[in-house]
Specification:
elongated, alpha+beta, 25% strand, minor pseudopilin epsh fold
Length: 173
């Protein structure tokens, strides 16, 4: 008598599913932390690149360039930096104001500008920023300062990234 293939028993399937659920339960928190770190790093790198390009554009074009926060992606406003960040060439002579680049900020990331002098960063034609140096805190919306980044713009317009952990972060707790 020839026996046919019978497959798996219900007990074998349940044991396999239980092991898979345990492994998934252990992996999900680590994966969520990894995703949060990647969101913050990507947003920080994108903002850093936009600031560097803005400074370069100001020097190359020999005209001021502004970087500002926006809630609608088209106009600079005091609504914060957590929706959009714009690179803008202000109106000069007969040339109208022009939005050169737009950074769409991830909704799970908050950008806080810590320079109290103005709502925007103004790069002069020499690449410098007038007034005090500016800093940005890039924070997760859950307020976990452990993975926050900070960007520092010196008066000469050069921007650098401060890696986590940041003890003096202004991220909301």
């Amino acid at each position: 008598m020839v026996r046919g293939t019978r497959g798996f028993t219900i007990l074998e399937l349940l044991v396999t599913l239980a092991i898979a659920a345990i492994v998934a339960g252990l992996a999900v928190p680590s994966f969520q932390t990894l995703m949060e770190k990647n969101r913050l790093r990507t947003t920080t790198d994108d903002l850093l690149e936009l600031l560097r390009i803005s400074r370069l554009e100001a020097v190359e074009q020999r005209r001021p360039v502004q970087v500002c926060g926006s809630t609608d992606g088209e106009t600079c406003d005091a609504g914060g930096w957590s929706d959009y960040v714009l690179m803008v060439k202000p109106a000069q002579g007969a040339e109208p104001r022009e939005v050169v680049a737009t950074l769409n900020v991830n909704p799970r990331v908050t950008i806080l500008k810590n320079n109290v002098n103005s709502d925007e960063i103004d790069f002069t034609a020499t690449g410098w920023i007038p007034g005090d140096p500016a800093t940005f805190d890039i924070c997760p919306v859950n307020g976990d300062r452990q993975h926050a980044y900070q960007l520092v713009i010196s008066m000469s317009g050069k921007t650098r990234k401060v890696l986590p952990p940041i003890a003096d972060s202004n991220c909301p707790a």
